[in-house]
Amino acid sequence: MQLMKVLAVIVAALCGLQWHDIAQAQAQAQPQPYPARAITLVVPFTAGGPTDTIARILAEPMRRSLGQSIVIENVAGASGTVAGGRVARAAPDGYTLTIGHWGTHVLSGAIHSLSYDVVKDFEPIALLANGPQLLITRSSHEAATLKELVEWLKANPGKATAGTAGPGSGAHVSGVFFQQSTGTDFNFVPYRGAGPALNDLMAGHIDIMFDQASNALPQYRANTVKVLAVTSPVRLESAPEIPTVDEAGVPGLYIDFWHGIWAPKGTPQAVLARLNKAVADALADPEVRRRLAELGQVLPQVAQLSPQALRAHQKAEIEKWWPVVKAARIKLD
Fold first, then answer.
1. At what angle are helices 170-182 and 307-327 packed, to 10 degrees?
2. Alpha-carbon gap, residue 204 to 68, rounded angstroms
3. Is 193 helix (H, G, I), strand (E, B) or coil?
4. 210 backbone dihedrals φ, ψ, rounded to 5°
5. pLDDT for 280 beyond 60
6. How many other C-beta atoms can be found within 10 angstroms of the C-beta atom of residue 87?
7. Average of pLDDT values for 307-331?
């Protein structure tokens, strides 16, 4: 009888362990609510640049909204296409995202021979900010206004030099658009980035340059360059004294260095919605808005924050800019 009781206890214990293992396996098999771990946000350029700065401004408020860390990973190379290819091939689970802009998700599709499609291989999450460019000149240039610059360029065809961050860069395409819009002719000088080009402009070695407001505003405030206009229909909140291109004499010369966030194609809609909400929460933060405004960024309206709005904006920009690029025969393999 005693032996039977011992055996019953052993059998009960074994059954309990078996049921515990089954319950544990079932719990592990249940999908965990997203996000269950840190999210990597791939920045397609080096640390310290405008895109990296915007990503880092948004990372902390997005972390608060999502309850998980946003890890910034800088993957530079080939005008952002190295990072683009990596994210396009990443698992579509919401844990690898990319921040990109007008250059990486519009211009690259026309300029580079890519292993991915800038539209079809990504799921849009949200438009982040619009960054109009500034048309700047060396501080000693004869032109005091944009209208005077156009007149000077027409009177001196082929003599002026415009700095760019390399062939096919935003500054290069902006300069081409300016030439096409004004009938002017000048030479492009490619650099290995916007920073070296801006340094040479300040030193007086080149004449003009299109640059993001976040880069150029500090130099403008230090009186080391002249700013002739902002490439937007409205003035900058952070520098309201700078005229728009419409006011300065070249109407319609609108160039926005806008940024957005994308996920790999096939990412579940519920995950995209969760990420979209985190971006919206971040952009509603007063401190985030203040810091982005200081960088010359214009924040989108609430109606522009949906994934569908980013997709529509990207496609509209492709329709505008690919013909400009192709007409100038800008192509890099």
1. 60
2. 47
3. coil
4. -100, 130
5. yes
6. 23
7. 96
Over residues 50-84, the pLDDT tens digits come to: 899 999 999 999 999 999 999 999 998 888 899 99
Instruction: Confirm if 134 and 242 have CB atoms less than 8 A apart.
Output: yes
Place of tokens 């919605």: 273
Instruction: Look up the pTM and report it.
Output: 0.86
Q: How far apart are CA 186 and CA 158, in angstroms?
A: 4
**10 Å Cβ neighbour count for 187?**
12
- Residue showing tokens 């509209």: 316
In percent, the amount of the chain with pLDDT more than 90 equals 80
Q: Which band of pLDDT confidence, cut at 50, 70 and 90, is reported for residue 6?
A: very low
Q: Which residues contact 253 (CB under 8 A, 6 or more apart)?
A: 177, 178, 181, 229, 231, 245
Q: Kindly write down the DSSP assignment for every residue of 113-153, as one continuous string.
A: --SS-TTTTEEEEEEEEB-BEEEEEETT-S-SSHHHHHHHH
The residue-averaged pLDDT of 21-33 equals 56
Q: Can you tell me which residue has the tokens 């990486």?
A: 104
Where do the H-state alpha helices sit in the chain?
Answer: 2-29, 50-66, 81-89, 102, 108-111, 146-155, 170-182, 194-202, 213-221, 245-248, 269-283, 286-294, 307-327
Provide the pLDDT for residue 5.
54
pLDDT digits (tens, 9 = 90+) for 179-189: 999 999 999 99
- List CB contacts of 331: < 8 A, sequence separation 6 or more: 111
Residues 6+ away with beta carbon under 8 Å from 132 = 213, 230, 231, 232, 236, 254, 255, 256, 257, 296, 298
Residues 6+ apart with CB under 8 A from 259: 51, 54, 99, 100, 101, 127, 128, 129, 131
Backbone angles phi, psi at 127, to 5 degrees: -75, 135
